[in-house]
Write a structure and sequence with these properties.
- This protein is α+β, with helices and mostly antiparallel strands.
- It contains four helices and ten strands; from the N terminus they run βαβββββαααββββ.
- It has a ten-stranded antiparallel sheet, with helices on one face.
- It is globular and about 50 Å long.
- The termini are far apart.
């Protein structure tokens, strides 16, 4: 695999406004009161700084082509996913605030997995609202080799004989409408989330893939519903296996001190994403 160490430290700066409209859409998606909020809710910052790649520069998978001259290196591994991240909430973001985000490539690591070569890219985001530091975030992207007829299906965690005990559980059944609405909110054109033939025949999934950041958003929303006094200062999440549309899963919460452990659990009792939130 090529050496991309020269890309570490590269950065870009983008600007946006914390408008209310996408937050109203997110609240509707989460089945919450869609009244315009005064501040951006936890993880609501993912609705800003949306991709603006020209249509002619979009690749077959719906992501920008690797030769588009953007921040990310021209990795030849075709499959890309958001594997996890860590967020610090430094200050509230008022609706209407002017936003600035500085993104830096913090690390690039090559690995060899069961399905072939992997390349992990960690991005660091520093977001300021009206000049005040508001969000510090690390985002882990993973690039994977193409799926082939000989490739094993996406790895699944071992079945859980006795599911982990949870203080609060909520059931979610993801359908194509839910996935489409989240893709629309985030301007996410990755075809695994809306093109069933592509997801199955090209990337080797049994159906449409539920967005990793959507699962993370559902988990933190679950925590906010169950812990009304929660004001998150830190949130982290790690994807362990994909969730597929039409297959119900559970949002699980276990209180720990003034925060909580969170996880998504599929119908077989297996955790597919783990997260932690700190008050």
């Amino acid at each position: 695999m090529d050496d991309y160490s020269d890309w570490i430290g590269r950065s870009e700066t983008r600007h946006d406004m914390a408008t209310a409209a996408p937050l109203v859409g997110l609240a509707a998606l989460l089945d919450n009161d869609p009244a315009p909020p005064a501040t951006v809710p936890p993880l609501g910052h993912w609705l800003y700084f949306l991709p603006d790649t020209r249509q002619s520069a979009i690749g077959d998978d719906g992501h920008p082509r690797r030769d588009d001259g953007g921040l990310l290196p021209p990795v030849p591994l075709p499959r890309r996913m958001w594997a996890g991240g860590r967020v610090e909430f430094l200050a509230p973001i008022a609706v209407g605030a002017a936003l600035t985000r500085v993104t830096t490539i913090a690390a690039i690591r090559a690995k060899r997995g069961a399905s072939g070569d992997l390349l992990f890219v960690t991005l660091q985001h520093e977001i300021a609202a009206d000049g005040i530091p508001a969000i510090r975030e690390e985002q882990d992207l993973v690039y994977r080799a193409p799926a082939t007829a000989a490739s094993p299906p996406p790895a699944e965690p071992a079945p859980a004989s006795v599911p982990e005990p949870a203080d609060a559980v909520r059931r979610v059944t993801p359908d194509p409408v839910l996935l489409f609405r989240y893709s629309a909110l985030t301007f996410n054109a990755h075809r695994i989330h809306y093109d069933r033939d592509y997801a199955r025949d090209v990337e080797g999934y049994p159906g449409l893939v539920v967005h990793g950041p959507l699962i993370a958003t559902l988990l933190i929303d679950h925590a906010l519903r169950e812990m009304p006094g929660l004001t998150p200062t830190r949130f982290s999440f790690r994807a362990e296996a994909p969730l597929i549309d039409g297959m119900p899963f559970l949002l699980c919460l276990a209180r720990e001190g003034d925060g909580a452990r969170l996880w998504a659990r599929d119908a077989n009792g297996r955790p597919t994403m783990r997260a932690e939130v700190t008050n």
